[in-house]
Amino acid sequence: MRILISGGGIAGLTLAYWLHRYGHTPVVVERAPHGRLGGYGIDFFGTGYDVAARMGIADRLAAHQLPTESIRYVDGAGRVAARLDRRLLEKVIRGPYLALMHTTLEEALGDAVHDKADIRYGRSITAIEQSPGGVGVTFTDGDFESFDLVLGADGVHSQTRELAFGPEGDFAHHLGYAMACYPVSDTYGLGPHRIHHSEPGRQTILYPSDVPGQLIALFLHRTQDRRPPPRAQRRTALRGAFADASPLTAQLLDAAPEEGLFMDTLTQITMPSWHTGRIALTGDACSAMTLTSAQGASMAMAGGYLLAQALHRHDDHRAAFLAYQNRLRPAVQQRQQRARAFARSLVPATRPGIAAQHLISRLVLRDLFTGLLRRGYGDTTSILDRT
Ligand SMILES: Cc1cc2nc3c(=O)[nH]c(=O)nc-3n(C[C@H](O)[C@H](O)[C@H](O)COP(=O)(O)OP(=O)(O)OC[C@H]3O[C@@H](n4cnc5c(N)ncnc54)[C@H](O)[C@@H]3O)c2cc1C
């Protein structure tokens, strides 16, 4: 089948790879121009790692890991109040754990698929029209083409979802936070460690990027706003949200770029159905979990893989879409529920709350509580076949 994928991110590229492997002809439209830089770090393990291994890219990813020996929770004076060592993290996860730049994973997927799919950068869809025999698609440049299926892998603010299922507000669940991140020079002597620093209602995270001498600063704060401010207002909005912050945060905010500040709200997507007619969704487009799950990229790869596999196993696309959804959705729902619970206690609203959080972390982040930690954060369900 000739299949259009909207979105050349983690889910879309994984999907294109496996569709090609099963004999289909994938066409990918990606809104961004080719060769994006920068971005943010992700924890990568579990199902996503298993799919990466089946694609033969796990060794390449392992070679590009970010240096992460521990996660340190520091107080206002920079003292370590609690720490999670990589050794314990790997024990909790019960398998390989990689800290990666999001772009590292996208690049590895892009290289794995570049000769297997027609990938068109700087392009999007503007209209979709279904008929019994196919789907007609109009693109931003005015071109019109027909496909057998259209698969939306265009992220949490999916245009495919908007066009085929309805407005984002029908499916979005705001977790009450916004995040922002950007690269800064490493003048902090951070070494191979990630630091988390909480203040009432706000958190600053700092970790090494894949560029020597460069760190990524990530900011999380509580907000009732459901969308980020316009690009031109983001730096001011971030500084406003972190007014009177600790010296470390204030110093990082001074380095905020005027342009290119990545900002979004933490929004989960839940939908009664991931498919309609000849159109289906995968990745964040139908199942965004937010960064508090630390498994969005992993499940995006699971989604791409399982959707292609279902289309391979079922002659009828409707049966395939249903099988894919039934297979993946319970695992997604479990992770979304855990991410919501985690978000509630992520950033305490008061200083005594933060002190209590440090105390609990000091007690719990130990081998003795491996099982408890695994139930909270691990990839506990087996979603893939053994093959
Ligand atoms: C700060 C941060 C930290 C995170 N940490 C982790 C973590 O530790 N572990 C983890 O597993 N996950 C993490 N995640 C989540 C993870 O990045 C996402 O769940 C994952 O990227 C989802 O993949 P996707 O392919 O569905 O969507 P995306 O990666 O968002 O890809 C969507 C693609 O579609 C493109 N696109 C969008 N609109 C259109 C359009 N109209 N037309 C064409 N193309 C379009 C976009 O340019 C993009 O390339 C984090 C996310 C953030 C923001």
TrEMBL record:
**Source lineage:** Bacteria, Bacillati, Actinomycetota, Actinomycetes, Kitasatosporales
Q: Which residues cross the membrane?
A: none
Q: Which SUPFAM superfamilies match?
A: FAD/NAD(P)-binding domain
A Pfam family assignment: FAD_binding_3
Q: In which organism is this protein found?
A: Streptomyces qinglanensis
**Boundaries of every FAD-binding domain copy:** 3-334
Gene Ontology MF terms in the entry = FAD binding
Q: Report the protein name in the record.
A: FAD-binding domain-containing protein
